[in-house]
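Most newcomers find our protein records easier to grasp once they have seen one. A learned vocabulary of local backbone shapes supplies the integers on the structure line. Here is such a record, shown just as it appears in the course material:
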Amino acid sequence: MAFQPKTKEFTSKAGNKYTFQNVMNSKQAAIIDEGTGLGGKVINVKMMPLMLQNVVVSPQGLTMDDFDTWEELEEVTSEAITFLQTGQ
């Protein structure tokens, strides 16, 4: 069975639109391993850029500093993590 990427459209509370796309299981495992610490706790400084680089496909090339507020950065990356793990 070949990998078929899924996408999701997401609109933040601020009204900005994003498109998420999942990754292959091997890439997901690498992302989770790199972005979490002991006990599976998310390390924001590592996980947020990984979500923006690998899961948020539109707009492309976002960095943490492209967001006007921490609230939106956290909202988008948290939603991206949920999508990556659940496909929803």
Remarks:
- The chain is about 45% helix and 15% strand.
- The helical segments are 25-35, 44-54, 70-86.
- The first strand starts at residue 7 and ends at 11.
- Residues 53 and 60 are 8 Å apart (CA to CA).
